[in-house]
Every structure is written in structure tokens, then in C-alpha cells.
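PROTEIN FOLDING TASK:
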Amino acid sequence: MQEVKVAPHGEAPVSSESLLQLLRSKNFAEFSMKLGDLFAQYSIPGDNEVKLKLLTSLQYLGKDLEQISNLPREPKYSDPQVDLINNSRVGCLIAGKEDCPLTIQFYTPTTDGLKISDPSFEESDSEPVIQAAQVTIGVSDATHKLQMASLIILPLQLDHQGHIKSENHGH
């Protein structure tokens, strides 16, 4: 096997190194799971025009999240990943690729300060756990306005409270 290509909706096919490695290592279960995730990611209801609008909106959201995640910050921790997760405005952002949606890593709050009455609770249980959320499109009964342009003013500008100023596009 020389190459595996994935063609996201409306785009040209691109090589997928991660899918290729799964096939080369004969990890068919993981490969099948990745294909299922891809299907779920791009299985959007509606006609092609609706699908294209939804994917365009998702791309703009991803670009805005990347801009926010790249805001300068002073390092607080010795581990760069911990610093990204704890000290950035959106956690650790893992840019979406052809075979994986945009993902945000974050820590769940620790149980510090909470009284635990369970006798099996150990001190190590209070360590924060890294969680991940994927930024995808899903079906909803509610009507939503789509983001059809970047909402971030470039270069990024902060107000006096440290919040990001954004364009008002009527959203």
C-alpha cells in the first residue's frame, strides 16, 4: 500500500498518513473505527448547498479558534502541553486534518476543596484528567445562524478586560 487519500466534502483528495499507517500495521479494527468517525463527521443532512454552508461555517469557526489559541501568553508550567491546556484561552487546540475533526483538550476540575465520603477515594483521584472535545456538526431541531466569515479582528485586539474584540456580523 503506497497511499491513502481522503476527499473531504467539496475538496480535492489529500493523503492521510494516519490511515495509511493503520493499514500497513494491519490494524483493521482501528481503521474501521476511523472510517466510521469520518462518515459521522461528513454525514450531514441536507442537499449539497446546505452541506457546503455547514462545512464553510465549521472552517471559519476552526480558524477563529486557532487565532484565539495562538494568543501570546506567559509560560506558567514546565510542560508545554500542560501550559497550553491550562494557560490558553481555549485549551490545547489540535487542528483538524483530513481524517480527524478539530479537537480541544482541557482538564476537568480537580476535586480539591470537595469533601469525599467514599473510603476508597485516594489522594491520586484528585489529579485533573485531560478530556477532549471534537468540534463537529450535528443535527438539531433548533434554528442556528451560521458563521460565514471570521468573527475575529486581525490582528487580534483585546479590550481593557483582556477579552477579544470581534467583528459584529449580525450574529
